[in-house]
Amino acid sequence: MTTSIARPLAQAAAVTNRRRRRPAWGRQALLQALCLFVTFTVLFPILWILSIALDPRNIARPDSLNIIPPGANLDAFVRAIQRPTENPVSFLELAFNSFKLATSTALVSVAFGVSAAYAFSRLHFRFRQVLMIAVLGVLMLPAVATITPLFVLLNSFKLGTFSLRDSIPGVAMALISGALPFAIWNLKGYLDTIPKDLEEAAAVDGASRNQSFIRIILPLAMPAIAVTAFLGFVAGWTDFYFSWMFLTKPADFTLTMALYGMVGGYAATTPWNVLSAFAILVALPVSLVYLVFQRYIVGGLAVGGVKG
Amino acid sequence: MGIITFYPLLYQTWMSFTDFGVQNLRTGAPAPNWVGLDQYFKIFSNDISGIPNFDFWRILAFNLFWAFSNVIIHVILGVAIAILLNTKGLRGRRIYRAIFILPVVIPPIIVATVWRNMFDQTNGAVNLLIAALLRQPPGSVDIAWLTDPGSPIPFFSLLPLSFFALLIANTWLGWPLNAVVATGALQSIPGDLYEAAEMDGAGAWQKFRTVTLPFLRPAMLPYAIYGFVITFNLFYLSYFMTNGGPFGRTELLVTQAYRLVNEQRLYALAAAFSVVMFFILLGLTLVTNRLGKATASYAD
Question: Do B229 and A290 touch (CB under 8 A)?
């Protein structure tokens, strides 16, 4: 019985193996070509910025398509690091402040966001719809609209010479208040797609609500959590409005503030090469952070616990 | 907290019914006069003396079209590239992913300024690139992307050439985040579903439609709606790249409101404008909420 099926099966396998092995590199080449094309479109403006940063002539508009202009040097980068602004604050301090804002926004918005999203997704309580619409409504406001109220609110907390508004934690709170609605909404959308049967199975096995949240839901939602954390990080790192409006002490300044400070008087007096060099230095750390987050975003978790 | 949030809103609403101007700004200055719905009439009938070529309905239509077209393009591109990066056996995937996130990471004002430089008529990179591709000498292609008052689509005068410049710049900026969200969603699709579909004889397009799409939709739809709101209120591209030009045809509601406050100092008018914007956004919120509920998520 087995031998009569074995040979046709082996022959079929050999045929499909042959068919599968041959065009492998052709397909790879096509995919790589597409990816390279996309890479080119993405990198082209960035290389443009790099070209302005390297150019010693300090021009606002490059006049040819060269990526590396004649006489290129790293002067602009050195100047950007040594003296970012007129204020007595070093590049590292600026970067550290930005880092503090970015990480606190990411962590807090995710921590509160995933808990709130779980509540919205799984629990039934009065005013659930209303609250969800309220979260959505706040999402629609442009950030600019919330500056004045937050200014007044944070200003009202003063202890001696310490004003909550004029401090990094205050700005972080403002940023979190903006990032939280998006985090809640994004995570709720993702949590809705996780089947409830998983938790029911866990409940049958005797898990409490907290246990099923921490051990089952959180690992499954890791891609969405990683995405939300990353977006929160970017929001904190590139924030301009709140830090510009709220902070007055140079020791608290952030990288983006220094950047905007340079674009003071338009074309004539702006040091374009230093500006571009600074922009590149500001952008790099976030790409490094993204490299770290990638592993979680592409977590590749197999959801196969209950279904078939 | 509610008071702090709602008090400015109420104050603004009150302001919109008056003729609040610069003379009323300082504390202790005379109170402004009540003019009723006068400011609103001025807005809706396009009658503002300080601003040439002001047409509220055109700005609103442009703003809506801008947001819709951008979001549609961003989502399609983002999903397509996410699928491209997700195919099995692709080498250098992590490097590509790291590179593709770069547009998001650059501070917005730099993005706007660099793209403005690139669309420059004589020396801009875009024109130079087109000339190089067409094998013409570098000076020959000078499309006035940002200043051309005409429209490339003859019967659709809503879209000047600068709209397309803005569209290209914003698309460059917009698809990476959509791709990241789509990648997160694609990871949650169990591989056996694809194999099951293949065994049933599904082709590539059918596999996409029946397996990939239902998983993508609950993740992409909230993000698409959020992207719509962000694009609707995207201030810095329109302000710094085209400056609302040519002749105010790429103005958005937000940039117009900003101009009313900072340049024209018509505070009462700006307040009325903001109230109108609020209701428009509220309407959009309710519509998108209805839309969000109408999609079936996988878990139901």
Answer: no
Which residues of chain B are modeled with pLDDT < 50?
1, 294-300
Q: Does the structure's ipTM exceed the value 0.85?
A: no
| A149 lies in the same domain as A235 | yes
What is the nearest CA distance from B224 to chain A, expressed in angstroms?
11
Structure tokens at B78: 């983002």
| Residue B186 to residues A36, A103, B76, B98, Cα–Cα distance (Å) | 22, 26, 14, 18
Q: Which domain holds residue A52?
A: 2-73
B105 and A186 within 8 Å at the Cβ level: the answer is no
Total tally of structural domains belonging to chain B: 1
Residue B57 lies in a domain: no
Other CB atoms closer than 10 Å to residue A27's CB: what's the count?
Answer: 13
Partner residues linked to A159 by β-bridges: A162
- In chain B, which residue's Cα lies nearest the Cα of A66? B125
Buried b (16+ CB within 10 A) or exposed e, B277-292: bbebbeebbeebbeeb
Q: CB atoms < 10 A from the CB of A177, how many?
A: 17
pLDDT, residue A107, reads: 93
Structural domain of residue B112, as residue ranges? 66-251
Look-up of token digits 């709720």: A188
Q: Do A61 and B105 touch (CB under 8 A)?
A: no
Q: What is the CATH classification number for the domain harbouring B92?
A: 1.10.3720.10
0.80 exceeded by the pTM?
Answer: no
B177 and A256: CB-CB below 8 Å? no
Cα dihedral B91, B95, B97, B101, rounded to 10, equals -160
A293, closest residue in chain B (CA to CA): B98
Q: Answer whether B298 sits within 8 Å of A28, measured CB to CB.
A: no
Long-range contacts of A260-264 (CB under 8 A, 24+ apart): A260/B109, A261/A85, A261/A86, A262/A85, A263/B109, A263/B113
pLDDT tens-digit readout, B22-35: 565 555 556 667 77
A12-16, A154-158, B96-100, range with the lowest pLDDT: A12-16
Contacts of B5 in chain A (CB under 8 A): 149
Residue-by-residue DSSP string for B214-241 = HHHHHHHHHHHHHHHHHHHT-HHIIIII
Q: Is residue B106 part of a domain?
A: yes
Do residue A63 and residue A95 come from a single domain? Answer: no
> Number of structural domains, chain A?
2
Which of B188, B235, B282 lies nearest to residue A223, judging by beta carbons?
B188
Mutation site, A27, A28, A38, A47, interface B, largest B CB count within 10 A? A38
Residues A117, A59 within the same domain? no
State whether A49 and B297 contact (CB < 8 Å): no
Q: How far is A233 from chain B (nearest CA, A)?
A: 10
Task: State how far the Cα of B207 lies from the Cα of B189, in Å rounded to an integer.
Answer: 12
* Min Cα separation B26/chain A (Å): 17
Helices B161-186 and B213-232, axial angle in degrees (round to 10) = 140
